[in-house]
Amino acid sequence: MNYGIVIFPSKSLQDKANAYRKRYDPHYALITPHLTLKNVFTTDDSGIKDIANKLRNIAKQYDPFNMKVYKISSFQPVNNVIYFKVEPNPELEGLHKAMHTAEFNEQEPEYAFVPHITVAQNLSDDEHSDVFGSLRMLGIDHEETVDRFHLLYQLENGSWTVYETFRLGKE
């Protein structure tokens, strides 16, 4: 089965992202706006129980932290993805690194970790240029406290749902 690990932002930030995702993100109906901590990976039932235990331990090592979303950016020319850029901080970096260790049977991530919330993807070059230009002029400035992350699994129809939620800090 496919799994992933994400942070879901507050409803207000999800609403802002969804205003664009509805139109510009083909994954809109499959998953709510999120910041990916660990991309899709595959494991079986016993493997996911082991991973969930490891995630519980990771969550205990980090206190809730402030997440700042401060600009609209793009991964072009690598790909035509437009996103809300999240300011890197030690907690996000640490969570990401902890989930990409040998304990998770992890090879190096495909891309460097750029904390972000995708708002548009799979755009043609012209669409990307138009959408990016208009979104950049609108800008974004948002701060919130993150106190949990989520282990998700993928359903047969391609949508994602929560397997388990992990609260940050000592219980």
Residue runs with pLDDT of under 50 for 5 or more positions? none
Total of DSSP H or I helical runs spanning 4+ residues: 4
Q: Within the largest sheet, what's the order of strands?
A: 2-1-7-8
Shape: globular
Strand count, sense and barrel status of the largest sheet are: 4 strands, antiparallel
Helix share, percent: 25-40%
Q: Which band does the percent of strand residues land in?
A: 25-35%
Concise description?
The chain is of the alpha+beta class and 171 residues long. 31% of the residues lie in helices and 32% in strands.
Characteristic key phrases:
four-stranded antiparallel β-sheet, 171 residues, 31% helix, alpha+beta
Topology, please?
Elements: E1 2-7, H1 11-24, E2 35-42, H2 45-60, E3 65-74, E4 82-86, H3 90-98, E5 116-120, H4 125-138, E6 142-146, E7 148-154, E8 160-167
Antiparallel strand pairs: 1-2, 1-7, 3-4, 3-6, 4-5, 7-8
Describe it for me?
The model has no long low-confidence stretch (mean pLDDT 92). This protein is globular. Strand 7 and strand 8 form a beta hairpin. It is built from four helices and eight strands. The chain starts with a strand and ends with a strand. 31% of the residues lie in helices and 32% in strands. It has a four-stranded antiparallel beta sheet with strand order 2-1-7-8. A four-stranded antiparallel beta sheet has the order 5-4-3-6. It has 171 residues and is α+β, with helices and mostly antiparallel strands.
